[in-house]
């Protein structure tokens, strides 16, 4: 599978790169961005997947989070894929709403028409993208990886880690959608992508997955208490309750005064990268 380099910029002694490739899983051209720390000039390095939230592309995180400095210090690479398939043939929300369709793939495998042909983001993140990296000349250790994300991407990181025991060394999230079964964003996305049977939604709900997790991978979550989406959409208290019941290790840090923005992410991204690095190095 061929990748095409779009851009390269030096950053904190390493390289910020952007690539495109044809995705067989998503039936469209995709882009991803990756930061390689300076250590990657000499050897392959561990890899952290970052999954972004609603409306984002692979650019938002690297342009706003300030993660490169911390990744360079820790000697880890960070890869950020796009949040949905793209292209003229890819269907979007009929009303062009921000919370479904383009920019809102929810990291699930859609089963319903017309979404199923392209919206296979779960398989893209867990299978096709790792295989693409492993076959490339990028000096990253695809078998020594962890995963984190924000909002919709926090939901993606948690569910993917819980459904793939042994695949990731660590998982964390910023303001994740903790239970798509119980919030408007999740209800809209899963009913359209997966269908109206809520039993099928549980396969993409962190709270439901915690109860049957085969691996007690510790979870780190930062959540701002001034987040406008906290009460209606994010509901970290549901995840806390599920983890307590299942005796699953969770560190939930409520951060006073912080909202849902990248200002919040930039404030704590260094701590998250340090958290991941201790499991990867």
TrEMBL record:
GO terms for cellular component: cytosol. Keywords: Hydrolase, Serine esterase. Transmembrane segments: none annotated. It is an enzyme of class 3 (hydrolase). GO terms for biological process: formaldehyde catabolic process. It catalyses: S-formylglutathione + H2O = formate + glutathione + H(+). Signal peptide: none annotated. One of its GO terms (molecular function) is S-formylglutathione hydrolase activity. The active site is at 151 (charge relay system), 227 (charge relay system), 260 (charge relay system). Its EC number is 3.1.2.12. Serine hydrolase involved in the detoxification of formaldehyde. Belongs to the esterase D family. This is S-formylglutathione hydrolase. It comes from SAR86 cluster bacterium. The gene is fghA.
